[in-house]
Each structure stands twice: as structure tokens, then as C-alpha cells.
Amino acid sequence: MKEFTDILLNYVEAEDIKACDEFKKDLGLASFDTVCLSAEINNTLGVKCEPADFIMHRTVGEFYNNVIKK
């Protein structure tokens, strides 16, 4: 999870990211950022994800467990 949250910190203004944080509500992740973040996750972690995954999985923990760990 650390590698994922480190990438996420490049796109949000937060000091600490918790599994219960919601991407839009708590972290303020913009739609354009989800596109860029998806590409970086694909390239860095080798995990295929789409911007829609951030809508389907609203929290950091939910996204991690259902997309990254999958």
C-alpha cells in the first residue's frame, strides 16, 4: 500500500493518506488527476486500472484491495 500512497501523494494535498479516505471528498482528487494517476499506476506498478475505478472504489483502501492487490 505504501508504494500506491506515495504515488497518490503526487496528486493530492495531504500529509497522510488513510485507507478510509475518499478520493474526491477527503483528498480532493480531480477528474483530470484520475486520468494521470491511472497512467502512472499502470506504468509504475504494472497494474491495469481505469479512471472509472476511482469512481467504483471510492476509498483508498477499497481501491487498493480491489484494483492494486487483485
Task: Give me a quick take on this structure.
The protein has 70 residues and is mainly α.
Architecture blueprint of SSEs:
Layout: H1 2-8, H2 31-45, H3 53-56, H4 60-68
Helix pairs in contact: 1-2
Quick tags:
70 residues, mainly alpha
How many strands appear in the DSSP assignment? 0
Helix content: 40-55%
Q: Compute the CA-based radius of gyration.
A: 10 Å
- On the 0 to 100 scale, the average pLDDT is 94
What is the distance, rounded to the nearest whole angstrom, between the alpha carbons of the first and last residues?
Answer: 13 Å
- Beta-strand residue percentage: under 5%
Low-confidence stretches: none
Largest beta-sheet details: none
Order of helices and strands: HHHH
Task: Enumerate how many helices there are, as a single number.
Answer: 4
Helix and strand composition category: mainly alpha
Shape assignment: globular
Tell me what the structure shows.
The protein is mostly helical. The chain has four helices and no strands. The protein has helices at 2-8, 31-45, 53-56, 60-68.
